[in-house]
Specification:
five-stranded mixed β-sheet; 5 strands; alpha+beta; binds FE2/S2 (inorganic) cluster; 6 helices; NADH-quinone oxidoreductase subunit E; 2 domains; NADH dehydrogenase activity; 2Fe-2S; iron; single chain; globular; Glutaredoxin
Length: 153
């Protein structure tokens, strides 16, 4: 599938980011060993590919967890308790942003506005957005994920 995506985007002007997004959509992450081939077909350097991957927070270079928790770190959420929520997420999960818990259940990511500013602070868990999240609410969300992981183990 990677080879097919490389062919699909190789002649697309400005196609590097869409290609990276397509690879992540397909594989769940962008394997480091794919970077040289990506650079070759997009006619750029591997350093440029790495630069784009590191710039966009939602691109990852390792497989993510079964669930993704995104904490909004943009202005409105920051002004309404977002910083405390960030610290809480790190404490409860035991990982920093961009990483996955040791049990492989939850990946913690930053996001810069979920379009839910009027009800900030906000987080997104997989495809669901939660508004006015406080420490207790976040702890409850994380506990439910962990419980669900135990139930399916
Ligand atoms: S700033 Fe957080 S939802 Fe917009």
């Amino acid at each position: 599938m990677l080879a097919q995506l490389l062919c699909q985007y190789q002649d697309t002007p400005g196609g590097l980011l869409p290609l990276l997004q397509a690879i992540q959509e397909d594989l769940g992450y962008i394997p480091g060993e794919a970077v040289p081939a990506i650079a070759r077909v997009m006619n750029c350097s591997a350093a440029e590919v790495h630069g784009v991957i590191s710039f966009y927070h939602d691109l990852r270079t390792a497989p993510g967890g079964r669930h993704t928790l995104q904490v909004c770190r943009a202005e409105s959420c920051q002004a309404t308790g977002g910083r405390e929520l960030e610290a809480c997420a790190r404490d409860l999960l035991g990982v920093d942003f961009g990483n996955t818990t040791a049990d492989g259940v939850i990946t913690l990511e930053s996001v810069y506005c979920l379009g839910n500013c009027a009800c900030s602070p906000s987080v997104r868990l997989d495809n669901d957005t939660y508004a006015r999240v406080d420490r207790e609410g976040l702890a409850g969300l994380i506990a439910s994920l962990r419980q669900g992981a135990e139930d399916t183990a």
